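Action item from last meeting closed. Structure (129 res):
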């Protein structure tokens, strides 16, 4: 029996109550070794239901996220449609953040004070140096 999860990945039922991700099973069959518990079955094709073992490579969560950013599946910073700040504004927040109150910076940029605080503390926009 097979089905898809809520993110579109195939689930493969081995026996009642025991399922595996279909792309991980395909990888194990094709390569003769199962992916470790901390390894991801990364899709080079960026197609979650794909089970073609030629499209699946072993990688860490970090490598999987880097691949997703590089191929545009995940967008960062200004590339995100909902982004209200630019990279230059982020740099400005970090430069003057210690000397100007967060609320004043937020008002000037048209964002929430918590947005400024998150930028300054490095919780968001970490990719901007």
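Sequence:
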């Amino acid at each position: 029996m097979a089905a898809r999860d809520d993110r579109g990945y195939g689930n493969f039922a081995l026996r009642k109550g025991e399922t595996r991700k279909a792309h991980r099973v395909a990888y194990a069959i094709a390569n003769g070794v199962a992916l470790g518990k901390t390894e991801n079955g990364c899709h080079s094709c960026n197609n979650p239901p794909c089970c073609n073992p030629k499209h699946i490579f072993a990688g860490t969560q970090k490598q999987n996220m880097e691949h997703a950013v590089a191929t545009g599946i995940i967008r960062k910073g200004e590339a995100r449609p909902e982004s209200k700040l630019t990279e230059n504004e982020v740099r400005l927040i970090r430069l003057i953040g210690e000397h100007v109150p967060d609320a004043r910076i937020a008002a000037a940029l048209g964002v929430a004070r918590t947005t400024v605080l998150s930028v300054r503390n490095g919780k968001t926009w970490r990719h901007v140096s």
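Note appended to the action item: The two ends are 48 Å apart (CA to CA).
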